[in-house]
Design brief:
heterodimer; A: 296 residues; mainly alpha; MetI-like fold; 3 domains; 12 helices; 0% strand; disordered N terminus; B: 260 residues; alpha/beta; Rossmann fold; six-stranded mixed beta sheet; 8 helices; 39% helix; globular; binds adenosine-5'-triphosphate; binds magnesium ion
């Protein structure tokens, strides 16, 4: 409820900080060191430089541990991993595996989200439907996509369809449950106020209830996106002949730990990028639906 | 004319039934400003919800004009205490009013004039582009009022609309509301538990007893010119009179909350 408020107070504090910097730099001639320091304390730069520092430290510790503490064959040092990655990048091997996995995730995620939102909205609104279907959903949601791999292979083979299905399966329940909760929690006062103004039932549903549920739907989709990334890998390890998971499995069979690490890094980077893009799109397209008004 | 006839409201729950209202009767004439005054939990909101048609009465009925109230109706608009949850947070100030005109099926050509008129009336025309989250509590409440007035209802049902505001803002809002009411001459049913608020606004105060089985114990006409000054001896006497009337009930309602 207080997210908007917190954001506001954060930006106010930043504003104060920025003003202090201006005052300081105005007091005497800025030396390069001071300029660097004031640049570093600007919020955006601060977060970028902290992220960079965090990554550098991470890679440093990794390099140290694998060179001096652990067996470099079991944990190849980062420089070694990058050296392996370069030809794989150049030949387009990583790109093609990554894009194959990404397409599978996207297709399953998009269809799963769509179905989850549509059915979730109906379940949130139609009491009878909810009471009828809820017990089934409550049972089925415990079947993780990984648990469904064997039967998916029998149903759909090891082609694309089985991967779409598995991602769909994981996404659907998460989005469904969040959407239903969001629809339920649409403030009664908001619906009643709309009714007074003259909105009919359909208008209340479409123009008031569904938009009120958007923050819940988006949260569900973000969680589902993360889970899709987690479930595509086992699906490809067990039942595919392409994709990042397949790359992992092949490299494992051939004891190529370098290539395994390249694949693992690729998953990290892909997940990070996709989440950032998702957030960016939400910020651009749905920002106005994401604010909660705190209680007066 | 809004006629409340022997309204009884019983809430059924797993733990038993609770009689909130037990035979409330009240007749409100057109253009009248009535305050429902009573201690917390006495059933003011319950009665208002029944007047709005959000909830049915268990027994008795409400008649507006010559039609019984059976559901939310366009001629009766409710103003909620928490304006933030009643407004649509994804729409700007102007768009919130436009939403009302749209669902009301007002002719599109009239929209700009109506929007201008009511935003100006509540003093929000300089904040048209802001979203509810960017408005203060008082501004949100004024927006809710502008939005409700824009559809030109006959009756305004207001559930403690200013309870969460600071004293100064509340006084300003009283002035705004009275000014609007005097200009448009609509019926107002205004719920409050604040005696001073009731006295400064109402033509008539309906004092409710503490529940369970709450009823209207007293109707007090206030035939004093507005704005009313609380230090005026006549007003002060009225204040004390109502305070004494409510005191035994307040003690009772406090005792009750101790038991809970
Ligand atoms: N849905 C409900 N189910 C059961 N009991 C209810 C329900 N709504 C209200 N009540 C009970 O009815 C009584 C009156 O409630 P109501 O909300 O009308 O009080 P109120 O006079 O508006 O109080 P306040 O000034 O605090 O807003 C209370 O005792 C409350 O517990
Ligand atoms: Mg109330």
């Amino acid at each position: 409820m207080t997210s908007a408020y917190r954001q506001q107070s954060g930006s106010l504090r930043d504003l104060g900080k920025r003003r202090m910097n201006i005052d300081k730099s105005g007091a005497d001639v800025p030396t390069p060191m001071r300029r660097l320091r004031s640049w570093l304390s600007r919020p955006a730069c601060r977060s970028v430089s902290l992220t960079a520092a965090s990554l550098l430290i991470g890679f440093g510790v990794w390099q140290f541990l694998s060179s001096f503490v652990f067996n470099p064959f079991l944990i190849p040092p980062p420089l070694e991993v990058f050296r392996t990655a370069i030809p794989m990048l150049k030949s387009g091997e990583i790109l093609s595996d990554a894009s194959i996995s990404m397409i599978r995730v996207m297709v399953g995620f998009a269809t799963g989200s769509l179905a989850g939102v549509v059915i979730g909205v109906l379940l949130g609104r139609i009491r009878l439907l909810h009471d009828l279907l809820d017990p089934i959903i409550e049972l089925l949601r415990y079947l993780s996509p990984t648990a469904m791999i064997p039967i998916a292979v029998i149903w759909f083979g090891i082609g694309e369809m089985s991967k779409y299905f598995l991602i769909f399966w994981g996404t659907f329940f998460i989005v469904l449950i969040n959407t239903t909760a969001g629809v339920w929690r649409a403030p009664v006062a908001r619906q009643r106020a709309a009714a007074c103004l003259g909105a009919n039932r359909l208008q209340i549903f479409v123009l008031v209830v569904v938009p009120s549920a958007v923050p819940y739907i988006v949260t569900g989709m973000r969680v589902a996106m993360a889970s899709s990334f987690m479930s595509i890998i086992p699906a490809e390890i067990l039942a595919a002949n392409s994709g990042i998971g397949y790359l992992l499995q092949q490299s494992s069979m051939l004891l190529q730990t370098n290539r395994i690490f390249v694949a693992l890094l690729t998953i990290c980077v892909l997940g990070f990028i996709v989440d950032r893009i998702f957030r960016l799109v939400v910020d651009k397209v749905l920002a106005r639906y994401m604010s909660f008004v705190s209680q007066t | 004319m809004l006629r409340v006839h022997n309204v009884r409201k019983v809430f059924e729950s797993a733990r038993g039934s609770y009689v909130a209202l037990d035979g409330v009767s009240l007749t409100i004439s057109d253009g009248e400003f009535v305050c429902l005054l009573g201690p917390s939990g006495c059933g003011k909101s319950t009665l208002l919800n029944i007047l709005a048609g959000f909830e049915p009465a268990t027994a008795g009925n409400v008649v507006f004009g010559d039609a019984p109230v059976t559901g939310a109706g366009r001629e009766r608009v409710m103003f909620f205490q928490d304006a933030g949850s009643a407004l649509l947070p994804w729409l700007s100030t102007e768009e919130n009013v436009r939403f009302a005109l749209r669902v009301r099926k007002m002719p599109k050509a009239d929209w700009p004039a109506i929007i201008d008129k009511y935003l100006e009336m509540v003093g929000l025309d300089a904040h048209r582009g802001k979203f509810p989250a960017e408005l203060s509590g008082g501004m949100r409440q004024r927006l809710q009022i502008a939005r409700g007035l824009a559809v030109e209802p006959d009756v305004l049902l207001m559930d403690e609309p200013f309870a969460a505001l600071d004293a100064l803002t509340r006084r300003r809002m009283h002035a705004v509301l009275l000014d609007i009411w005097q200009r448009i001459g609509k019926t107002v049913v205004f719920v409050t538990h604040d005696i001073a608020e009731a006295i400064s606004l109402a033509d008539r105060i309906a004092v409710m007893s503490v529940g369970p089985g709450s009823v209207i114990t007293r109707l007090i006409e206030i035939d004093l010119p507005r704005p009313r000054d609380l230090t005026d001896p006549q007003v002060a006497r009225l204040f004390t009179q109502i305070e004494n009337l409510l005191a035994p009930d307040l003690i009772r309602s406090d005792e009750r909350s101790d038991v809970h």
